[in-house]
Amino acid sequence: MFEDIVETVREPLIVLDSELRVLSANRSFYISFKVQPEETIGNLIYDLGSKQWDIPRLRTLLENILPENNKFDDYEVEHIFSGVGHKIMLLNARRIMHKEMGSQMRILLAIEDITERKRIEKLLVASESKYRELVQNVNSIILKMDPEGKVTFFNTFAERFFGFTEKEMLGRSVAGTILPETGPAGSDLDSMIKDIEIHPEKYINNENENMRRNGERVWVAWTNKVLCDENGKTIEILCIGNDITERRRMEDALKDYEERYRRLFETAKDGLLLIDKHNGDIVNVNPAIVEMLGYFSQEFIGKKLQDVGLLKDIRDFKETIRELIHAGFINYEDVFAETKQRQIVNVDIYLVDRAKFIQCNVRNITERKKLSAQLLQSQKMEAIGNLVGGIAHDFNNILTAIIGYGSLLHKEIAAGDPLREYVEQILAASSKAAHLTHSLLAYSRKQVMEAKPADVNKIVFSIQKILDRLIGEDIEFKIHMAAEALIANVDRGQVEQVLLNLATNARDAMPHGGALTIRTERVQIDSSLIQVNGNGEAGDYAVISVADTGVGMDEKTRDRIFEPFFTTKESGKGTGLGLAMAYGIIKQHNGFIDVHSRPGEGATFKIYMPLLPAKEALFEKEELTPVVSGNETILLAEDDQVIRKVSKTFLEHYGYKVLEAVNGEDALRVFSENRAGIKLIVTDVIMPKMLGTEVCEKARMIKPDIKCLLMSGYSSDIMQKRGVLEGGGNFIAKPFSPDDFLRKVRAALDS
């Protein structure tokens, strides 16, 4: 883009480096001075054309631009060139910097040929008639104005350039016509004219923003001369101008480009370093890399990448540079960088060939890798949960039959019979097995949860006495509760179980005493923490913190504590299901558990559960209803023969009439044939050929008032997808006792 801008300017332009060697020149330069690129590029300016440009004063001015941040405007040079002869030139030089040149400063030299203008000025002095004839045909703006700024002469080129005729301009002020009234000159023309009379040297060469008739703003380089009478009184001011709009636009574009590049460089989130391609030294850095690596800006300059902790494994950086020049870029993904404080961070490094410099982009991916690892751990826990949930479901079906038949057998054996004790042992073992499956389902978030609004503070308070006895006298126990009610939709029993497990673990982590603190509070969680933990939604949460001063955990242990059957306790002193169960229960509450621990510094478990609005806090305690008999006809649909048989026995024992079905299609057929007499459908949720929920839906199309009771050992997540509400009166979870089953049947019939 820079080269395109330079090439389109009509004036000869050349770009010089710090040694005054020509880096580039535009076509106008070659044409004007009749030279070729091969004679020009790479040569010192004062060696061009057999040292024709070796002008001492010009050389001094150019040499002072870069080190002293100087510039010069309209430096007049009169010289005889072998190729083009006598020339009078106005030279303008500026210090520039452009992205395509790296970050080194360069000199832009603009050459304006004023030979013709000077010749015209001499002719004007010699002959007014010749002057008028010439000025009307020259390709320069020529006008004269009186001491009040009113136009007295306006040549043909001025007419074409500004769009006004000479007739229109004569007698009119330049202010408001060709000089914007809003500009510094146009707003106070009288003061400017007086200044020209007092300090004419200031205006011999002057650049102004002017205005065409159509309102377009243009830039003109003016040569102004005060014309006086024999008494020295100002008669007129002669103004000769040349259009420099393109040159000014190019300069403005370069400044704008430099500023935009500087802003991008300074505000980029990635760390950026500019490296000298020849020696590998860092020459510039942005704030992002300063913050990332901890060095001050000046500490980078002159250092190698390896000196500031980047690409330390690269031994031959020159070879890397050669590869970079060949390929254009080199990418280093997920490599280590070392900060000034000796901390290791993960970064991606991208090297790009930028002419004289190498641009090094450094992106800190440490947090991204941490989030990725946490997501992987969450997915691992979910996969284990799915496996555990499937196993627990199969156990539930088996336990339903064992508990059912065991309960029936228990009722049939008289008190005092030795066999009754055997049956009681069977039922006790079955109860323990059921508790184990509940723990597994809790871990996998698949236990049926009976959630109701409850104050988290009251749950903690209700188990305070139990905890006092549990932890012992050698441990200081404190509870700090939030002043406000923390209403959450919870299964009170499950949350109590989580707290008891955490308190037990805390006690075991402090064999020689210590302190246990439980704290409740309200916090607001944003989406970033939700994404890290993979569960819940942003909003207000109740937090229960359980903190101990025990032995703590290392990172390896901390990453595995929620895995089922993982334990750090001695064999026989723990099942490894306590924290796994806690993890599952809190996940099922749409919450999560956050753990902070280091070896020797204790551990803090924070339980997060979403809060409900206070108006949803009221709930009624469910009373346990007695088991009563009935005489209604019930359709029992269950694909497991053992469970179907024992369930039928329960129902018939209490007076119900039972019709059996072995799958979904069979159930719908039996219902269609006996629709009038059937009062209730008791069906397993997941069955071959048709789901239990579909059986109920289609049965209601036949008989809208038919009632249904769903039962399942599958996950509550699956049941929720099938339209089954957790904890509702139309659902019972396996395994169940005969009494619980019969209460649910009666409740469904009476609903």
Can you offer a commentary on this structure?
This protein has 751 residues and is an alpha+beta fold. It folds into five domains: 2-113, Beta-Lactamase (2-Layer Sandwich); 117-249, Beta-Lactamase, CATH 3.30.450; 273-364, Beta-Lactamase (2-Layer Sandwich), CATH 3.30.450.20; 452-616, Histidine kinase-like ATPase, C-terminal domain (Heat Shock Protein 90, 2-Layer Sandwich), CATH 3.30.565; 633-750, 3-Layer(aba) Sandwich (Rossmann fold), CATH 3.40.50.2300. 40% of the residues lie in helices and 26% in strands. The chain has 28 helices and 28 strands. It has a five-stranded antiparallel sheet, sandwiched between helices. A hairpin with a 5-residue loop joins strand 10 and strand 11. Helix 16 (366-412) packs antiparallel against helix 17 and helix 20 (492-508) packs antiparallel against helix 23 (578-588). The relative contact order is 0.05. The model is unreliable at 571-576, 618-622 and 725-729 (pLDDT under 50).
